[in-house]
Fold these 3 entries.
Entry 1:
Amino acid sequence: MAPILSEVEQHRAVWDKASDSDQIWLAPLAIRPAGEHYYIYRSDTGTSIRTNAVGARAVELLQTGLSIGAVRASLGEGFGLPAEKVDLNPLIETLASNRFILQIGSESLQEISEKLQAGPHPLGSRIAGAVGTLAIKYLPLPPMLQLLYAWKPGRSHEVQKRIEENLARAGALGLSQPDRTTEAELNIDVVLRASLDRLLLAALSGQRLRRWFEDYMTVDGAENLDEAVTLGNPVVLCGFHTGSFSLLPYLLAARGYSITALIQTARDARQIAENTVLHLRDAGLCHDLELVYGPQGMRRLRKAPECGRLPLILPDAFLGESMTAQPVAFLGCRLRPSTGIAWLCQGHVTEIVPVFLSSNPEGHHCLHVEPPLHTGNEDTEEAILQKVYGALATAVGQAPHQWQRWSEFHSMIVQGKGNIEP
């Protein structure tokens, strides 16, 4: 295993004294399967590590707040091992060396919650923790957002290099090396801001949430969606992972649209999403939003237009994982696309309306609504997907740094097939 880095040496003393009754507080993480392995991503920096099924399950359990001993016992039961045979030390070392651990110890949930609301630890050190919590609660929005987004934890050289290399792979962008460096730096900042925006959804009071939505979020092209709805054909909202994309369903609902949104998240994170809906509803910002998940959610998406609702799906969520779809052209490369949106639209006339967010360092968000992509009864899956990924290519080409898939773009490209021009 990699040695503990100097940046996390402060955790070593805590780990040396840790007991089975202690908890581990992790940074915001996402877990994604890749064949027999799993990749664990730190959401705010893009750093990733690879582990096996046992390691992935251990991280999931740690995220729920279970103690070290409880995790060992649960893993032993789940994988048929005695608890004493479950050694978490290699996993903890790897998490620590990649700065995935924020705290090891017996802090109360209230203390952890306050740190979460005040932002990640480097920000807390600037504004003395509790002061940061008060700032989010009581400071006027402009200085509060300026203070929050001023946090720069230090860009990972490895992540930035990977993003630059992936931008070079997208040859149709035509970016020079200096341009790729600039876009990579901006992209890391966008990913960080998106993570902070998710915290704000939970931390802001109802009144301040309303002001945030009203003063910092605008819509460009709303007439495109309104016109698509008046045509009388089923409408499918096609979102992309740009800007603070997790705000997308909430912002659409706040604008008065009835939305059924497919959310791709771990099972134990679904309650957080549902609680966010309730929080926004209490603030008067979530008039009609339904969150759905998994295969059953796809079926509910397909029935949404029959109930007068607009289905929302983000088809760039799992690029590279479908092994059945034909590759599509994308920025000079060939990608294996996610086919869910084609399944929703194939066999009948549909208006696909691309929607995506962009953000800036001041905390302003713009929802872009593009003209609808018309699909007919005879359109094949390949034809539908090429329209969708063509729209994604246009959106990414306008502001490459806003797309949150650059750090993993190399894994999305169909290997051994060569590149094609779009």
Entry 2:
Amino acid sequence: MRTRKAAAAFILGAALALAGSPPAFPADEQTTLQAISRDTGVAVETLRERKTATGFSYGNLRMALLVAEALRRSFEDVTAEFKAGKPWHRITGEAGLSLKEVERIARRHRETP
């Protein structure tokens, strides 16, 4: 009987301790977000929030950020176009750019102080 009470107390204590801690994210997600952060210059926490808000895959999240940066448009505008069914190559093509050029432009913007 005492063992059950001790086990219940341990479980309750662990549950209470976890309730106050921030959510844990898988190492894969953290690593992926860090890589996207390096590519885009956007903080990991901001990336996490935008991924949750948009429901985008990591690839689409990265592309939305790069396209917005290269076209000098807001993330929200670019995201709205993509969600309306316009593919990335069409969004960039309308601005006269290829996806490879978007990558280069975004990289250049980050490297320029």
Entry 3:
Amino acid sequence: MMDDERMTGSFQVEDLDMEGDKLTSRKPSSVVYEDPVADLLLKYYSKITMDDNEMVRFVFLAAPFGIIMFFYMFVSNSTSSMISFTAFIVSLVFLGVSMWMLCEILKKDVGPRSMQDIAEVIREGSEGFFMT
């Protein structure tokens, strides 16, 4: 594309892709993706309300240590079983942390319409990539 075309206004800069080719017009997508799993997670997350309740937060932080101590004192005090049980509890804790982070992300606003249009194009491109 020539610089004089930019100056004359025959093309708008927003209507060009990275190579300078004119973009085709796209109709904005009105597809709304519903996610029942995300809705269920957010429903349970809103019931817990860890942000406001310090006692619930303390219980979630102290419970793994209490469970490990209970296992050591009353179930088995051998080293191999203690290591495997501790690894199991730590993995459950990190699954809980990942669910908490997921709910924090899902709770955020989806953004303005222009950002949603761009996200739709990216989603279509990624789906096309995985189909090949």
